[in-house]
Amino acid sequence: MEANASGFFSTINLVKTIVGAGMLAIPYAFRSDGILVGVLLVLVGAITSGFGLFVLAKCSKALKEPRTSSFFTLCSITYPSLSLLFDFSMFVQCYGVGLSYLVLVGDLLPGVLGGTRNGWILASAVPIVPLVLLKKLDSLKYSSILGLFAVAYLVCLILGSFVENTLLTENYREIRGDVSWINVYDMKGVVSTFTIVIFAFTGSMNMFSIINELKDNSLTNINIVISRSLLISAALFLCVGICGYLTFGSNVLGNIMLNYNPESYWTVIGKVCLGVVVILSFPLLFYPCRIATNNMIHWVRITYVEFEEDPVDSSENNDPTAPIAMVVEDEEDRLLLGADNSYQATSCQDASHDLEENVTRVTNPVAAVPFSDKSFYILTAILVSSLYLLALNVTSFALVLGLVGATGSTSISFTLPGLFGFKLIGSQAAKHGQLMSRADLIIRRCSLLLSIFGVAVTCLSLYVTLFFGV
């Protein structure tokens, strides 16, 4: 597959992956958090998610051919026994959210444009099916641009309403409840809305596809795409969160669109735009869902059907997906090579031990997961059909979706990137008989903290989902 995606369109796709219907719940989070804490949580979400994406990008360079990177290939060289589990988490996350989008289409559009719930769900297949048949994420760039125009309208609607009803009138208190600038309005609400903000920045499901398809997939260019995407997403979330909250205060609802006059022409257009956002977000979730399904099938096949124990010397293998550095020799007097190529003797023995513990010897290099045209179309047909059948028969699965988000989203955004980083960062130095640079050592330790953060968020999210409701 030719890699010709530009940084601009890769940024578009990543922003659209992150920014979806969940954006409209940010003002509700501010209702409990207050302005100060709400802004801080948005920044925490942006920083932690951005660092997770950065770690994934850096770990992709631990492959001889970074364009074959995926969660499966990295899992196979770091935690091979957990490859199926992690791909299953990816599948459940993307499948569950994709299903919720179809249900939302059926619940939203009949009240705006008329028709029946099932009719609109089936009608959504007209734009969705051609898009899910595209084989490259970069091919979705134009639909992502259209989706961002719809997002822009929603942002302008919220911003315009704030200017008109709050800044340009003295009667804003008629529609606005209490507003908290510094103090937390509701501590229990902070706990329950924390996960809303954290989950809003989930975009790691398409990170490897972006890395593989970028024409210039140098780490510098990838980091530019990540930085721009997170800055744009954070700016949108802050604008919607602050303006929406200052417009309605403690009266803001879980979906801020419900606060606006349903008879207003601008509100009707906004709800149609929300439907467009949801429909065009579906293919971006379906893309990694299909890859994860193929990876699981491949894992089952090589584990239980075609498994042959035939060790291969990795130094003689030309497999492009083999890790670049896999062997570390004992050498207690080795010095720590700094980022500036100066030798530092501090903590040398500890660093040598850490590196030896976390660089794996690979005897069976990981091959790129095959995905034939036949398998592509069969899996697409099965997944799309099952999603639509469920959407036509499921009206509410909030608890299940909450549990899926609490486990799947945090694992692919924080826990798994952190584990990859802790295991792989520094392997390139090991290949050349050196120890990690000080910068890599810091990143590796921060990766471990990211995994711990992910586990903590998972536990908190499960607690909120089970005891506070969703």
Automatic annotation (TrEMBL):
Q: What is its main location?
A: membrane
Q: Which PANTHER family does the record associate with it?
A: AMINO ACID TRANSPORTER, VACUOLAR AMINO ACID TRANSPORTER 7
Q: Which family, according to UniProt?
A: Belongs to the amino acid/polyamine transporter 2 family.
How does it sit in the bilayer? Multi-pass membrane protein
Q: Which InterPro entries does the annotation name?
A: AA_transpt_TM
Q: Which UniProt keywords apply?
A: Membrane, Transmembrane, Transmembrane helix, Vacuole
What residues does the Amino acid transporter transmembrane domain cover? 10-458
| Pfam families recorded | Aa_trans
Membrane-spanning segments:
7-29, 35-57, 69-92, 112-133, 145-163, 189-208, 229-248, 268-287, 376-394, 400-425, 446-468
Q: What cellular component terms from Gene Ontology apply here?
A: fungal-type vacuole membrane; plasma membrane
Compartment(s): Vacuole membrane
Q: Which organism is it from?
A: Lachancea lanzarotensis
Biological process annotations from GO: regulation of sporulation
A GO molecular function assigned to this protein is:
L-histidine transmembrane transporter activity
| Entry protein name | LALA0S03e01112g1_1
